[in-house]
Amino acid sequence: MTNTGKKFGVSIALLVPATVIAGGLLYILLAIDYGPGPGVEVGAIFCGTWVLFYGYYFKFLRFKQVGAVLTVMAVASVYVNLGSLSEERYDSQESSAFIALESQRTMAVSPSKLDVLNAAADRINSTLPMMTDSNIRLNSAVASLDRFQYNYTLLSRSSVEVEAASFLRQVNAAAVSDACGLDDNLSFLKMGVVIDFVYKASDGITVTTIAVAPEDCGF
Description:
Blueprint (H helix, E strand, L loop, with lengths): L2 H11 L1 H17 L7 H20 L2 H49 L3 H13 L4 E2 L4 E8 L3 E8 L9 H18 L1 H8 L3 E7 L5 E7 L7
Parallel strand pairs: 3-4
Antiparallel strand pairs: 1-2, 2-3, 4-5
């Protein structure tokens, strides 16, 4: 075999260990979910090891130097990228943990809408009953999930003495004004709560109910 043929045969044979080493590196990088595309590092390892083996086999100093440089550069690149990847994953995990913790804290300290409404009802009820005019008394406030109800009584008239349509015209404007003008009611409306004004006659029968929704007050 000529010298040229020998070099060609050896160069082909040396592709096997170079391929094995490069393939092993590729497998490891994929197994650890290596962030950047590993093609550059794997290619550099493949070329570096092949040139390095070739240089050692034929005792070519320049080949050994080039192969060593390529191999070291590939290893250094993997090392640097793995360090950056670890920091990014740590930061991401830390950020996720912080968000989860803040969410739990918010849930723990922030009252629900129903809690807010119930607290408001308790506060209002502590001042009741209260006369709103000479004939109408505000008896109580009642909260539910999406509604807040004021209960009134007409003291001097029974249900048979009240003409519902006429009475509705009489109190509707005042009810809407109270809903859209009082601070408590405004806060309820901004929360998407409907405010009900329920009027009952002296015999306990409901005369009319006025429901004021957020859109009625521009929300």
